Amino acid sequence: MTIVNAKPRKRMREGSFGLYTGFSMIFALILGGAIIPWLSKYDPNSPGGTPIAAPSGAHWFGTDLLGRDVFTRVFDAVFIDLGTAIIGVSIPLVVGTIVGTLLGISRNKRVNSVVGSIIDGINAFPFLIFVIAMIAFIGPGIPSIILALSLVNWARYARVARTRAVVVNQQGYVEAARILGFSKVRILFKHIIPNVSSETRAYALSDFIIVIIAVAALSFLGMGTPPPQAEWGAMIHDGTQILALAWWPTIFPGLALCWAGVAIAFVAEGMQRRLRETNTK
Amino acid sequence: MAEVSGPSAIVEVDTTDRNRAALRRMFYGRFLRSLSVGFWVMVIAFLMIRLSPGDPVRIALGSEATEASVAEMRHKLGLDQSVFSQFFHYFVNIFKGDLGYSYFSNRTVTSVVTTHLPVTLQIIALSIFLGILLAIPIALFIAQSKNQLTTYLFRAFTSVSLALPGFFLAVVGLYAFGIKLHWAPAAGYEPGFPGNLKYIWLPALVNCGSLVPVLSRVLHSSLMDTLDEEFVETGVIRGVKKIRFYWSYLLRPSLAPTVVLLSYMIGVMIGGTVIMETIFSLPGIGRELITAVDSRDYPVVQGIVMVFGLIVVFFSFIGDLLGYLLDRRVTLS
What we know:
The complex is a heterodimer. Chain A is mostly helical.
């Protein structure tokens, strides 16, 4: 993609558009989440005011069944939704990368085949179904969602990491480090894991979209945050109960969720282009 | 030469034996692998129930249960035996078609699955049918268009639509088509194939929101590869008839990755359909799953999850197989 400008300027790097757009969208969301509940004259979670009032100057996004301001609630939910998704991606990313790397470089065939089978077994289950089932057994709530996501998702990262680690382990620089007599731990953490994790981190970014939608979907199904805490999925669920009367309590939290998803998609796309550019250089 | 034959037919003639041996090897390899993954699916489903912090028997009997009745229930469910003998019974019973009993209703898990699974499978089948119907023309159109901007917009559009939450699209669909336009019933269901289309077309269409971008993108990129092949040029020069050209020269050599992907998408479809069923109140197995999760009916959850796991294993086996059969070039290498 070339940017045509009147005066000659440095050509934009590959993927910059996606990265800038995505990061500004996320930044706007976080900024809104930080200041709007604080500035707003309405309390996000306690009932009051006119129920089901249409969007107006006083309530930009209208009010819900309990008379709460939807605008304040949408932004009050930002940290719950983003935070759960970030933790829900980071734990399996770290665990999966380490387990997968160890499997990829280990020569123990029995451990490899047993753990490999467990990984394949976990990955065989439909993602959302498995998380729902886990929550059935460990109980609802945000910590449970994070635990369930971690128990399920590490296997996907481990699969990516294992394939990559087998390749990295045979590279010249790892061989060189071995000949230089560096300790195994040092080689693992300084040479192998950084190269494996570039792959799993790229996967984490596309996984982040799936996870943030899954977190909202689980709350939508009543397995996430208990009321009255504002959360996009739970707000959409409450909204659908009165969908025939009012569209705004459902549509605005949904749009916020779409905004977050699209923002991450932009970052992922930009990152991918950037990586491809660096690799082909 | 009276009849112009397609690319795959030419390849077939001199390498039939080699192909057949490779195909057989591939078949057995995949089959064994699927069996082992299937076994681990059962093990994980069996162990899952042990994650629960509480005693499942007490949850099933309620808080007022006496010690004697708890012990009796334990014995009835075989929970007083060792883990290995429990697993052995569980494993043997699966092959007898016995998945245990629901804690709260007097149904067997097998009967829950057999009554409600067909509805879910019909929704998924319709989603896939619609998905293929939409994805093929889109991918063909984009692949043959020489305009760079079209391709760019197509890629941007598919990435964005993949980032949209399916359950929210379902709610928007329910609002637009169910409440405003009255094109789809907001609730209710009528069993039987042609009659239920009225109720399942909208959930299936929403499922396509995630299916079509993935399918058309993969099909598009394999079509681009196929278009570079020499046999496509040969086909154009020979003036092969339109339909034959599209199928034998373009689609058939390109479909393999899409079919394999489609079989992997079954898992995603199942997840999406479970939520669709709750939103559109359809009597599928997903709604049973959510009800069972809410009431902590562990055997039902365990049974449904295991069945879904086995379905995914089965379809990825079929998908791999179809992928090989569609593109004979794969077996030659």
